[in-house]
Structure formats: C-alpha cells, structure tokens
Design brief:
4 helices; 9 strands; 187 residues
Amino acid sequence: MPGPYAEGFITEKAIEHLYDQSWKVSHNAARGGIRLIGDKPEWARSDGGEGGAHPSNVIEYGYPIGTLNWTGDDPCLFPVDAPDLGGFVSSTTIIKADFWRLGQLKAGNKLRFKRVSYQDAIAKRNEVEEFLSFVEACCKGKARFDDVFPLKYEGLPPSSQNKGWEPSIIHKIPEKGNQPLVSYRQG
C-alpha cells in the first residue's frame, strides 16, 4: 500500500513504474534490510530540503515495518528487525498480511509490488488471521487439517483493479499560530 512518502517526493511516473517492474533481491539482504535491485527512481524534487542534500532525505520519522525505504537511489525493504527511525523516503509499505512472505525472500528472488488500499490490506490481514486461527484449531484437535484451505493470492484485490487506493497523507492539522502543520501519513 502507499507508504508515508508516496506522493510529492518521487514522480508519479516513477511510482507507477515501481509497481510495473520486477525487483530482484540483492545478495546484500539480511534480517535488518532486504536490498533490492531495480531501476532508480525519478525524484520529484532536486534536494531533500530541511532533511538533507539528496532528494531521498526527509526530516527523521518512524519507519513503518515492511516499508520500501530509499537510501539515496537504493531501495531497501525494512523487515521486523530493521531500523525504526530515520530520515529517508519510504514510498511503499508491505501489508501486514504479507510479512510472512517478506520473511521468505532470499538473494536472487524476484518480486513485484501491488498497490492496495487500506481497506484491502485489512481484509487480507483478516483472511490470514482466520487461516492461522483455523490451523491452530487443527493443532489443538478442534478441527481437521483436511478442511484447511490455502490462502488465495491469485488475482488482484479490488482497489488494484479500480485504482481505489488512498493517498499517503490521510489527515492534516493546519498551521495555526505557533502550532506547525501536522501531517498524518499511512504506512
């Protein structure tokens, strides 16, 4: 789904290309960061403003788990053991339902991102949690493993089919007196 800095930092054309291309997992992948090999982004700004010299620089914020972070022009997925605070753009975030898939990646694997809405992310998360609850019931002898159905990953979620995803900024509190502008971003 869109990350905290999906709009205004990388051009819309480059964001679309991010979802159109296949990414290769680099040999520099570890539990603290999964580096990807793919095209460099086209930045929507010439520098990082108050965040620094490179357009990928922003003022420090908390990174979402599963984010696609841009350290300069280099993309890196941040799994559970990754840094939790920093000052680089995060353009996309892996949904929680797919964290288990993120943990299976290894050097040389290829992956593609699918842009989904917050609602589709929650629906997929509920589906995975229901699946895991059913497997747990089987382990406790309260259900049969023959009745377990695999998770469905073929096809695209509704928001990917109709481009019904939300922007990264989900709420703003305007600047007022000594209070600065506050932006709440999904991730």
